[in-house]
Design brief:
The chain is mainly alpha-helical and 209 residues long. It has helices at residues 6-24, 29-33, 43-54, 58-67, 72-83, 88-98, 110-127, 135-146, 156-159, 183-190, and strands at residues 163-166, 172-173, 178-181. Helix 7 packs across helix 8 (135-146) and helix 8 (135-146) packs parallel to helix 10.
């Protein structure tokens, strides 16, 4: 994947944050407490995680990892606990305040876009909401995940074996047995959410565990 300028990606990240804020404003207390697609986390927890993500810098993340004994899952849980307010409205207001930030740990900014879309779906699918994501945002996120090893949250090992093709056939990535579906569902697959992906088909699915 050729490097995409951060100045092109950040506006897409900010757009996703604002879109999620608008959706969260429509939820009632029961929906905020609903289990998200992230195992063990409620919708409220995922929203708090996104606040923590938006504030991530190299030094902030380093300190948080040290406090968590360099256990990534523990660091995530501690980040949620730190940013989750007593009420959904409190957490929502935190999201509003961080929506325009450009903080990120070292590495491609495209990872921030993946986080916003994937976690946006963790929330939306849990409460029956849908978003028509921009094709450009989805394609950048797919390309990033396809070039990122599984150990770092991507799906490079799968993507190098198959060809990913959008249903409208206007986006094709890779060489091999084809996996076809919408851009969003392809991203769900590459983001460790294959069991929640809908309508994927093709001989390449034989490589999906």
């Amino acid at each position: 994947m050729s490097k995409i300028p951060a100045n092109e990606i950040w506006p897409l990240v900010h757009a996703e944050r604002l879109a999620l804020i608008e959706d969260l404003e429509t939820l009632d207390a029961v929906q905020w407490d609903a289990p998200s697609l992230c195992r063990g986390w409620s919708v409220h927890d995922v929203a708090a995680h996104l606040v923590d993500n938006a504030r991530a810098t190299f030094f902030r993340l380093l300190i948080a990892m040290a406090k968590a004994g360099f256990n990534f899952d523990r660091q995530n849980d501690q980040g949620v606990a730190a940013e989750k307010s007593a009420t959904p409205d409190g957490t929502l207001q935190k999201l509003v305040k961080v929506a325009g930030l450009r903080d990120a740990p070292p590495g491609p900014v495209a990872s921030r876009l993946v986080e916003e879309i994937a976690h946006g779906e963790d929330i939306r699918r849990a409460v029956g909401l849908k978003r028509d994501y921009p094709a450009r945002s989805l394609e950048l996120a797919i390309k990033y995940q396809a070039a990122t090893p599984q150990g770092l949250g991507g799906a490079k090992e799968l993507a190098r074996k198959v060809q990913l093709c959008s249903q409208d056939e206007t986006f094709i990535w890779g060489i091999g047995p084809q996996i076809a579906g919408t851009r969003l569902e392809l991203l769900m697959l590459l983001s460790g959410r294959g069991k929640h992906a809908r309508g994927l088909s093709g001989p390449g699915m034989a490589f999906v565990r």
